[in-house]
């Protein structure tokens, strides 16, 4: 099949998903001789308009894994505002070294329902949003080489097609989709961090407003950055991008869960490709 434009479409709070999606999409564009375009929906104003793609487009759509699923606060936008027209595509999830659980199959199925034809998919590892040690430095060179491989295999598959496949690429996951992963303590008790929000160390804060500008939910007051006026996804863009380390979490349950993840999933997780 002939494609004219390859789109890298992503939600990426701290850059990991953007790196993977860009690598795959640019590889597909290079091999197929197509134009490359990037499209982020990471910030609220970027989600103010629907994204629609044609049969001549190819889309690499990537999201981070939150609690083993597509992030719940992104589901309405992805379901209602990202649509294809028999558009060939690659589904990509990026998880924080624990597991991608049902996120990839969930994303693939949503894309199929929205007019895309997923001919390949991949589950990659990025540094966990909560941590600087869990998945530290990832995606690294080995991960990026696998992203390039997925792009090359995908481009080769496109060239063999005369019409879109009747079904989607098989991927790992359960159907029906399992509930979101629930953190628990060592005694099996649920740890609820849904309403936990970051704090601001006034002695370190420069009032530069960067945290407000990178907040994926638009929840940090740009005038008084210590005020969190909306929901927090714990994406940690404000924490990891603050130049002085002024943003932090101090909730006991959050810190316990972070420590548990770092201890239980310290071993390097693998990337999985499907094509």
Commentary on this structure:
The protein has 275 residues and is an alpha/beta fold. Helix 3 (103-113) links the parallel strand 6 and strand 7 (116-125). It has helices spanning 16-32, 75-81, 103-113, 141-160, 210-214, 237-241, 252-264; strands spanning 5-10, 35-40, 51-52, 57-64, 82-83, 87-95, 116-125, 199-200, 247-248, 272-274. Helix 1 runs parallel beside helix 4 (141-160). The model has no long low-confidence stretch (mean pLDDT 97). Helices cover 28% and strands 18% of the residues. Strands 2-1-4-6-7-10 form a six-stranded mixed beta sheet, sandwiched between helices. Strands 3-5 form a two-stranded parallel ribbon. It folds into two domains: 5-178 and 269-274, Flavodoxin domain (Rossmann fold, 3-Layer(aba) Sandwich), CATH 3.40.50.360; 199-250, Alpha-Beta Plaits.
Brief rundown of the structure:
By secondary structure, the protein is an alpha/beta fold. It has helices at residues 16-32, 75-81, 103-113, 141-160, 210-214, 237-241, 252-264; strands at 5-10, 35-40, 51-52, 57-64, 82-83, 87-95, 116-125, 199-200, 247-248, 272-274.
Helicity, as a percent range = 25-40%
Overall mean pLDDT stands at 97
CATH superfamily of the largest domain: Flavodoxin domain
Indicate the radius of gyration in whole angstroms: 19 Å
SSE succession:
EHEEEHEEHEHEHHEHE
CATH architecture of the largest domain: 3-Layer(aba) Sandwich
Poorly predicted runs of 5 or more residues: none
Strand content: 15-25%
Which CATH class of the largest domain?
Answer: Alpha Beta
State the assembly state of the protein chains. Answer: single chain
The biggest sheet, with number of strands, parallel, antiparallel or mixed sense and barrel status, is:
6 strands, mixed
- Order of adjacent strands in the largest pleated sheet: 2-1-4-6-7-10
- The structure class reads alpha/beta
Shape: globular
- Give the count of structural domains: 2
